[in-house]
């Protein structure tokens, strides 16, 4: 049987079509499009019509892939910007009308839980304590795990689209813009630690000082891993379990910040449409590592998209490339 999962994110729209057999889940088709659904978002009107139309067009294309592949079950989940938007019901209704796809809007903790299932399906260090970070367009999820078990998940209003539109108005961004952006990130990380303590979890237990493992998933850290390997063609097998040092992430961040958008477009392995977002995404990753005392990060290409299917059909199964 073939299953399709769709992740409707604040920045990126992704499709996975996979087959399930006795050995695990085998991806057949993987597609992604940067539609920036959260672009131009505001609290009064919600998702902008222009951003919605870009996403509808991409979903129609995904629908064609799903139909051609003979998929039996379609699971479509929407995250941060859709769950926040006042017009979320309009958006999901339009998706249903235009594509026949039923969209489920999930809360941050559910997003964290499903993302963890995807990460654990590919990561080679399943034992021990981990802090998993999923940097998204509208929010960032932090997940504390012991072995395969999630002991806490926190969805923070810290997304790369929001940070870009709020702070990075110059090209390249000015020193003051970067400083203000980093200040907000640090404030949210302080809030995260307070929330962890309020939930009875000591942040120190999931830090580098206690030999926990830092795992990053989603577009920012996978892009950094691809750039670090000088990949001409993005290869998920070379991204999963790749290790980036804190020093190397800092070098990449410091190298990308002074570039213009056009200059960043020429960087090998930097996905078109991510040339502005890579800056706040790198800052979130770097400052989170500093806050928790990590000197290296393990990378997972798998996350929410894979977790959606695994949770439905075979929790705990491995992903086979």
Layout of secondary structure:
Elements: E1 2-8, E2 12-21, E3 24-34, H1 49-68, E4 73-78, H2 80-84, H3 88-99, E5 103-105, H4 108-120, E6 129-135, E7 140-146, E8 149-156, H5 160-167, H6 175-198, E9 213-217, H7 219-228, H8 236-239, E10 243-245, H9 246-256, H10 261-265, H11 278-291, E11 296-300, H12 304-313
Parallel strand pairs: 1-4, 4-5, 6-9, 9-11
Antiparallel strand pairs: 1-2, 2-3, 6-7, 7-8, 10-11
Record keyword descriptors for this entry.
12 helices, alpha/beta, 2 domains, Nucleotidyltransferase, domain 5, 42% helix, 321 residues, globular, six-stranded mixed sheet
Put the structure in a nutshell.
With 321 residues, the chain is an alpha/beta fold. Helices cover 42% and strands 22% of the residues.
Q: What class do helices, strands and sheet pairing give? A: alpha/beta
- Beta-strand residue percentage: 15-25%
Q: What is the CATH C level class of the largest domain, in words?
A: Alpha Beta
Instruction: Note the total helix count.
Output: 12
Our Rg estimate from Cα atoms comes to 19 Å
How far is the N terminus from the C terminus? 17 Å
Let me know the average pLDDT: 91
CATH fold node name of the largest domain: Nucleotidyltransferase, domain 5
């Amino acid at each position: 049987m073939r299953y399709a999962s769709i992740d409707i994110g604040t920045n990126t729209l992704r499709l996975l079509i996979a087959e399930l057999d006795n050995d695990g889940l085998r991806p057949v088709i993987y597609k992604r499009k940067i539609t920036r659904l959260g672009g131009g978002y505001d609290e009064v009107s919600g998702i902008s019509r222009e951003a919605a139309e870009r996403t509808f067009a991409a979903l129609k294309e995904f629908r064609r892939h799903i139909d051609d592949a003979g998929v039996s079950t379609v699971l479509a989940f929407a995250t941060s910007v859709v769950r926040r938007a006042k017009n979320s019901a309009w958006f999901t209704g339009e998706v249903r009308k235009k594509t026949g796809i039923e969209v489920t809007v999930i809360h941050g903790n559910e997003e964290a839980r499903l993302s963890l299932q995807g990460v654990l399906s590919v990561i080679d260090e399943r034992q021990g304590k981990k802090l998993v970070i999923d940097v998204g367009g509208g929010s960032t999820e932090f997940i504390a795990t012991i072995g395969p078990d999630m002991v806490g998940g926190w969805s923070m209003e810290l997304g790369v689209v929001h940070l870009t539109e709020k702070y990075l108005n110059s090209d390249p961004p000015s020193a003051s813009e970067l400083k203000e952006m980093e200040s907000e990130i640090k404030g949210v990380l302080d809030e995260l630690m307070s929330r962890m303590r309020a939930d009875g979890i000591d942040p120190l237990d999931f830090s580098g000082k206690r030999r926990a493992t830092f795992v990053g998933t989603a577009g920012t850290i996978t892009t950094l891993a691809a750039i670090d390997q000088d990949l001409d063609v993005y290869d998920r097998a070379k991204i999963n379990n790749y290790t980036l040092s804190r020093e190397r992430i800092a070098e990449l961040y410091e190298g990308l910040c002074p570039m213009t958008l056009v200059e960043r477009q020429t960087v090998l392995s930097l996905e078109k449409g991510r040339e502005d977002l890579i800056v706040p995404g790198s800052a979130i990753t770097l400052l989170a590592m500093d806050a928790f005392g990590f000197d290296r990060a393990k990378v997972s290409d798998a996350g929410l998209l894979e977790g959606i299917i695994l949770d439905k059909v075979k929790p705990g199964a491995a992903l086979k490339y």
